[in-house]
Specification:
It is a single chain. This protein has helices at about 1-25, 30-35, 40-50. It is mainly alpha-helical. The protein has one domain. The two termini are about 20 Å apart. The mean pLDDT is about 90.
């Protein structure tokens, strides 16, 4: 069971990383704006997920 849980967590992490990489590639001005507002990487990640309608 523990190995399966780790696989799920890793898949989730990879999915989010790929999703955010694509978002940053397609909308760099949005990411830059968030950085200029002083958001850290985790806050930026949540903003992107929220904009995309993905609930983490």
């Amino acid at each position: 069971m523990s190995q399966k849980l780790e696989q799920i967590k890793e898949s989730r992490r990879e999915f989010i990383e790929n999703l955010l990489a694509a978002f940053e590639r397609d909308h760099p001005e949005f990411i830059e704006h968030l950085k200029e507002c002083g958001l850290d990487e985790e806050e930026i990640r949540y903003c992107c997920l929220e904009v995309l309608g993905v609930k983490e």
